[in-house]
């Protein structure tokens, strides 16, 4: 054999052998997920100098580590942090990093059962030399602001310490000097806060017997500590102003007259040792303060920028009842009884009145049709109501109290610079809003000097756009009404149209809820208050505050279906978008689903797309003090990684992380395809079709259709293997040889179910036409709203061989007037102004309600159904699942309903998550792959045998 043929033979043989070995990689099993290694999301941190990036990584179940990686070379450190994730905190100069170490995963699990108290450890690492110091039983910590020489560490109370409202709240506070490693301990500290520069530390003492309680201020340069106020009282809520020159807090003192402590607001300013200015105000002796009210512990307490006004909240302050607990005795009746003989001739003695505490009272709720909030909503929101406070202010120089909010105008927003406030009065519309969900409000301009109110907008329709942002100068605000944006000058009350002269629509064309002219996004004001940045359905506009000039920063991107998706806020001290600095925006192509990042250079009027491709980009952040940028990148087959660049245009970005290393050990999806199709309503839509592991062109595969609403916007998102709350994980299914189809659904009002049929069935047919999907082995799954659509689709089509519906609505008529127990409100607003898309009530819309209810078409079901509905579901009432299950069972349809006791709308407990995930895969494997039916599906499990059954399956 010649050498060329031999080489070709060896090459082909090697390639074939490599292909066989690749195919031999095992599919990902649910049991494998416990050890799956991944970086935890939302826990990355970039040091202020941009030199270090941190993240946490570890198995799904097990102990984690924190990684510190240098951004310019390969230097990396790993630290064990126990079983809970944490986020590293860097000192301002980047020389130190601090992070918590929690108890080990196994120890924490054991403590859940034994209720043994566990504590965190704090590690502080010097990054130049990696020296580390650890502190045990730490409660919290804080670096000393912009002068990072100190770290303050608060410790947990010792075991056996007294508890309760009257127990002292203070514990040890350690001040650790980082350069010299010297420690200074202060005992009985309840609260503490550095100012922004770190030059001062304010702290409160709460000691046993309230001995030495007070508010103290330590000069961090000299170490001199000043007692600003001492009393037999409790102090809380230290809030520095932004400049770090003043702070406010609350003081609580028990008074014999009142049931609860009487609070005062304390304002500290003009810091100068013992000569520091201090004002204390309780309102108790102020004739202008509302009777029966007191300063609330739950209100926001802060200084105005000019240090002339203190803002706080007020709430009901109850006096003690001087009356005795016993019921008053009717002495006349007793006297009369003393002179009247009984049957035996003896004097009758009146029964001793019962004490109030001994009287048996009915346990009841009264539901009145005039209630603005349902009784159930009041129950759920009871604690919030108890803690509610009304915004108020005290003008220090004038010694004048001003009430801003009241029982009708409960929500008041104080604008920047404290020049104006806006009050929201929902009371005229609250009852109707609780019925149909269409939110209206009267908006008032509040004079912060006098408290007087002036109506700005009457019956403002909030459902279209919730936000009413102030300009940073506090003199302007912007709002949306009837398809257009406006600016309002709060000084003159003059209104300026912002978008009416622009040849574009600012009505969100993708929002198909029952909302009149929903708004496109508002990205806020510019830092100088000269411009607003508002997007139409694609392009971003820079509009002058008077509406006279508008420039498209994205230059007619609508033609290519590219839209500005969002603005990154990368400058933490900026109140708005400072157009004198480079600004970054996320971009999205609605046609291709590509994502990217665009740059608006300082002073320029055109966005430049830095990159946009078949990846998912996000999480852009900038180092606080240096031009170092970090952002994330992922795809449908590659997990999220963090990249760092030192260039403003993000070029030459280096990948610093190495996520999900276990993926190479398993069979994996090779990618995703975007499918275009036309719905039965004539709309051109798209669907994502994720390919199964080992995919071969020309071969068809069993397919799971997963539905909710519009899902293709996440086309390039990675599905992290995990134990899901709803049973389905895309990565597990594609690894196990399934294709996964995720179609978009566009809704027509009063036809939510029929809309799903009109969109999903054509999507399935289009997917089958690609040759990838085996038309004889297609299943469907959805949870919640997706569960409803699943349970409805199988009444209208037999295209699916099996279906799994999680927590589905099944009877739109009964569901309409049931309670959404998680919030306590009725479902009626959800139907009429949100996801339900049915309006008005079924009594005037009977045909639509029945046409879109699975229960009314139940006789047509021929698809085997796995149904999940938990008995404590606070979103979709448990009776919805019971009704559907019993109806199918009465018709002898193949159905199994699984209920996890005590679980809510989604499954929370890990053993239950695991169990349902395994059962769903077994169910689909049986119907789509021909595997043997599991016993629980084939014959069911008797209750007496359930414990043994669960023990055998547990992992």
UniProtKB/TrEMBL annotation:
This is Dipeptidyl aminopeptidase/acylaminoacyl peptidase. GO terms for biological process: proteolysis. The keyword Protease applies. Residues 761-930 form the Peptidase S9 prolyl oligopeptidase catalytic domain. PANTHER family: ACYLAMINO-ACID-RELEASING ENZYME, SERINE PEPTIDASE S9 FAMILY MEMBER. The keyword Disulfide bond does not apply. One of its GO terms (molecular function) is serine-type endopeptidase activity. Signal peptide: none annotated. Pfam families: Peptidase_S9 (PF00326). Keywords: Aminopeptidase, Hydrolase, Protease.
């Amino acid at each position: 054999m010649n050498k060329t043929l031999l080489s070709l033979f060896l090459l082909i043989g090697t390639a074939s052998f490599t292909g066989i070995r690749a195919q031999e990689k095992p599919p990902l099993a649910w049991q494998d997920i416990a050890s799956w290694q991944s970086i935890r999301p939302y826990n990355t941190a970039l040091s202020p100098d941009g030199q270090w990036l941190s993240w946490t990584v570890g198995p799904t179940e097990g102990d984690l580590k924190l990684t510190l990686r240098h951004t310019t070379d390969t230097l990396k450190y790993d630290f064990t942090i126990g079983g809970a994730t944490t986020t590293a905190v860097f000192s301002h100069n980047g020389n130190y990093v601090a992070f918590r170490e929690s108890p080990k995963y196994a120890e924490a699990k054991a403590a859940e059962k034994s209720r043994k108290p566990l504590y965190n450890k704090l590690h502080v690492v010097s990054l130049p030399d990696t020296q580390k110091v650890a502190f045990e039983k730490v409660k919290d910590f804080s670096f000393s602001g912009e002068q990072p020489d100190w770290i303050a560490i608060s410790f947990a109370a010792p075991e056996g310490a007294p508890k309760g409202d009257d127990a002292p709240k203070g514990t040890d506070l350690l001040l650790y000097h980082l350069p010299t490693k010297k420690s200074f301990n202060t005992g009985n500290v309840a609260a503490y806060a550095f100012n922004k520069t770190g030059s001062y530390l304010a702290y409160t003492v709460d000691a046993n017997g309230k001995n030495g309680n007070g508010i103290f201020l330590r000069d961090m340069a000299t170490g001199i500590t000043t007692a600003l106020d001492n009393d037999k009282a409790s102090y809380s809520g230290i809030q520095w102003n932004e400049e770090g020159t003043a702070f406010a807090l609350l003081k609580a003192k028990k008074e014999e007259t009142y049931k609860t402590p009487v609070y005062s607001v304390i304002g500290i300013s003009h810091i100068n040792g013992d000569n520091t200015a201090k004002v204390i105000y309780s309102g108790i002796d102020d004739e202008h303060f509302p009777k029966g009210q007191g300063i609330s512990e739950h209100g926001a307490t802060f200084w105005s920028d000019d240090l002339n006004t203190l803002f706080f909240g007020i709430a009901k302050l109850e006096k003690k009842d001087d009356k005795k607990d016993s019921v008053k005795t009717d002495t006349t009746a007793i006297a009369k009884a003393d002179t009247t003989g009984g049957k035996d001739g003896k004097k009758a003695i009146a029964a001793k009145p019962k004490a109030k505490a001994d009287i048996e009272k009915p346990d009841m709720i009264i539901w009145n049709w005039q209630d603005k909030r349902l009784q159930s909503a009041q129950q759920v929101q009871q604690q919030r109501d108890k803690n509610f406070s009304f915004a108020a202010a005290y003008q220090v120089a004038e010694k004048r109290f001003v009430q801003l909010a009241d029982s009708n105008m409960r929500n008041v927003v104080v604008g920047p610079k404290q020049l104006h406030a806006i009050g929201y009065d929902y009371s005229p519309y609250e009852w109707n809003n609780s019925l149909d969900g269409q939110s209206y409000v009267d908006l008032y301009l509040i004079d912060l000097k006098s408290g007087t109110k002036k109506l700005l907008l009457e019956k403002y329709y909030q459902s279209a756009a919730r936000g009413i942002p102030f300009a940073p100068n506090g003199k302007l605000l912007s709002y949306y009404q009837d398809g257009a944006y406006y600016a309002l000058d709060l000084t003159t009350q003059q209104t300026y149209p912002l978008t009416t002269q622009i040849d574009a629509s600012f009505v969100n064309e993708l929002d198909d809820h029952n909302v009149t002219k929903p708004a496109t996004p508002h990205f806020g004001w510019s830092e100088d208050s000269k411009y607003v940045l508002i997007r139409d359905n694609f392009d971003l506009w820079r509009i002058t505050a008077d509406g006279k000039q508008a420039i498209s920063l994205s230059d007619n991107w609508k033609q290519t279906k590219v839209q500005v998706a969002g603005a990154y806020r990368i400058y933490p001290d900026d109140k708005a978008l400072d157009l004198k600095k480079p600004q970054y925006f996320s971009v999205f192509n609605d046609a291709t689903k590509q994502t990217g990042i665009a740059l608006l250079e300082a002073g320029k009027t055109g966005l430049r797309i830095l990159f946009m491709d078949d990846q998912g980009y996000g999480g852009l952040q900038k180092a606080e003090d240096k031009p170092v940028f970090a952002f994330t990148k992922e795809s449908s087959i590659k997990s999220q990684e963090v990249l760092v660049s030192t260039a403003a245009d993000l070029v030459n970005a280096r990948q610093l992380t190495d996520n999900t290393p276990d993926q190479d050990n398993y069979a994996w999806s090779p990618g995703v395809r975007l499918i275009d199709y036309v719905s039965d309503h004539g709309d051109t839509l798209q669907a994502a079709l994720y390919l199964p592991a080992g995919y071969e062109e020309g071969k068809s595969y069993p397919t799971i259709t997963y539905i909710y609403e519009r899902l293709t916007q996440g086309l390039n998102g990675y599905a992290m293997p995990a134990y899901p709350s709803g049973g389905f994980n895309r990565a597990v299914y594609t690894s196990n040889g399934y294709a996964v189809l995720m179609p978009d659904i566009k809704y027509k009002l009063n036809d939510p179910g029929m809309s799903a049929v009109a969109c999903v069935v054509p999507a399935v047919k289009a997917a089958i036409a690609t040759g990838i999907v085996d038309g004889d082995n297609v299943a469907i799954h959805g949870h919640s709203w997706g569960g409803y659509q699943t349970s409805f689709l199988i009444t209208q089509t037999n295209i699916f061989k099996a279906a799994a519906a999680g927590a589905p609505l099944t009877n739109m008529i009964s569901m309409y007037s049931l309670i959404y127990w998680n919030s306590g409100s009725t479902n009626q607003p959800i139907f009429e102004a949100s996801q339900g898309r049915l309006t008005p009530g079924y009594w005037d819309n009977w045909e639509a309600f029945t046409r879109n209810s699975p229960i009314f078409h139940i006789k047509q079901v021929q698809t085997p159904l796995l149904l999940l509905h938990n008995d404590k579901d606070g979103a979709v009432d448990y009776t919805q699942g019971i009704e559907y299950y019993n109806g199918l069972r009465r018709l002898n349809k193949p159905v199994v309903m699984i209920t996890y006791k005590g679980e809510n709308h989604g499954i929370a407990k890990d053993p239950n998550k695991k169990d349902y995930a395994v059962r769903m895969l077994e169910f689909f494997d049986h119907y789509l792959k021909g595997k043997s039916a599991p016993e629980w599906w084939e014959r069911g499990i008797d209750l007496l045998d359930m414990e043994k059954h669960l023990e055998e399956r547990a992992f």
